[in-house]
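Suppose a colleague, Dr. K., hands you the sequence of a protein chain of 198 amino acids and asks what its three-dimensional shape might be. Before reaching for any lab equipment, you can write down a predicted structure in token form. Begin with the sequence itself:
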Amino acid sequence: MHEVKTPLTNVLIVGVGGQGTLLASRVLAQAAVAGGFDVKVSEIHGMAQRGGSVVTEVRFGPKVYSPLIQIGQADYILAFEKLEALRWLPYLKSGGGLIVNDQSIDPLPVLTGAAKYPADITQKIQAVVEKSIIVDAARIASELGNVKVTNIVLLGILAGCLDLPLAVWDQALEKVVPTKVLAINRDAFQRGLALVKK
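The predicted structure, expressed as tokens, is then:
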């Protein structure tokens, strides 16, 4: 009797420097490890400290050989900023899910006046991605008292879409997040999760 191979799950986390994308990817990777999966992570930093593009590829499954996600192969894209969502859209597979923080952060060409920030990103995304969740995660984080937990609100939404037990997410938060801010991160995670787990 041969074993059934569970397909790999490919998650692309994109944003700009300072948004907490790397922390979110560490929590996701830790949750997948706690769930018994092989995990590979690849981080690509642009001018991360200056608001440049930051991309993390997280792949997990029974056996993962490469950390890299090819164009058209991401099961989910978790985008911390709208323009980054649009920029990385070609990586989403047909039928894949897109979670977008409804926030605009002007990249350098916009700040210098060399380019304009596109006005209709949300409509463009919704026109091509059937499974898209666009949420003002920063507002939810602010309501909790700390806009820095925006990343964990978004992660909670992703958790509601992935097939990982909730217990492994809590273990991952406990392992990755500093103790003094663990409670607010747990609250942020639950707020995100509640948006998809009705």
